[in-house]
Amino acid sequence: MNQLASIRHFAKVAECLSFAEAAKQLGISSSAITRSIAGLEEHLGARLFNRTTRRVSLTDTGQSYWERCTDLLKQLDLMDECITSAAGKSTWSLRLAACSLYVSTDLPDVLSAYLVRKPRVSFDVTVFDNMGDIAANDFDVCFNAEGHLRDSSLVCRPLAQTRDVIVASPTYLKRCGTPRTPAELSSHDVLLASDAPSRHWEFRTNHGTQRVVVRPILNVQSPLVVKRAVQAGLGIARLSHSVVHNELADGSLHALLNDADLCGAERTVWLLHSGQSHMPLALRSFVDFVVARYHQKPQERNEVHAAHVGTTHPGDMLIADSWPH
Fold it and tell me: In what residue span(s) does the HTH lysR-type domain sit (predicted)?
């Protein structure tokens, strides 16, 4: 029995809780991984998994063994990275998850700049519109932009801030008129992005909070599609300033209701990654590069200063709670 191979097989099954899925990810047959786990259990003299026709779960012994195997495999991977890096042969692959807002603005520039320094890195990018659609084990690094960061067991590093603005094209405003007060929005055509707040937009006034019911004629997931629809004159939209700043600068879009205080307009761009004690060199290199890039280059948006919690690195903010699965 190749014990190290069996341990890797065991760790993958423990991660997936499925022999078939683990075999698929490892590129081997289901029967091979079944024999490997059976051999490991015989070697240890203990059952590692509870198996039924419908589900696979770890036994108490299996859970304890997995925790120790995870640390061992991370150490082995670090050893391999150190040797390949020293030999100048390191080829890294990182799994990224990013909200559509970040993908349509900063991510291409960030990856391009990083590849100048580390040309042998490849990226597998998952784009999402709702953070609840992905799980923490789906990525190595995640970029998200939201007003209030949900509770997370991940290390959360603030990169920058942006604000939502209400925009329309000159063509639309010429045809339908320019709203001068928030209340006038209710009579206009509105385009919604999937991550926009509700169909009620709120504004702070001298008389308190004013809620305006908007009339959406289009609701799509991509902020880029919404921007293009606004440019085409379909209606008024609420978009992040980072998405439309070029169009505002060249006059192809106009910002509306600048004197009104839009509630919930602030968004923080976050970088999230696991708080594992032995971070792979590739992951540490990329995270450090991204944080340094945002903290060193002038930002159109207000820079968010890092918070220090416990023993996390400068710039980390660790919110210890639960992560949606």
Answer: 1-59
Beta bridge partners of 147: none
**Distance separating alpha carbons of residues 234 and 148, to the nearest angstrom:** 30
The CATH number covering residue 9 comes to 1.10.10.10
Supply the DSSP symbol for 137.
Answer: G
One domain for residues 77 and 150? no
Q: What is the pLDDT of residues 146-203, one digit of tens each?
A: 876 665 678 888 898 888 999 999 999 999 999 999 999 999 999 987 655 557 888 9
Give 237's contacts (C-beta < 8 A, 6+ positions apart).
166, 167, 168, 190, 191, 192, 193, 226, 227, 229, 230
φ/ψ of 166, rounded to 5, equals -100, 125
- The residue type found at 308 is H
End-to-end alpha carbon distance in the chain: 35
Q: Kindly tell me if the per-residue pLDDT of 107 is higher than 90.
A: yes
CB count, 10 Å around CB of 41?
19
CA–CA separation, 123 and 211 (whole Å): 43
For residue 259, give every residue at least 6 positions away whose Cβ sits within 8 Å of its Cβ, in sequence order, or none: none
Same domain for 197 and 304:
yes
How many CB atoms sit inside 10 A of residue 154's CB? 21
Residues 187 and 69 in one domain: no
pTM comes to 0.60
**CA 13 centroid distance within chain:** 25
Regarding whether 180 and 143 lie in a shared domain, the answer is: yes
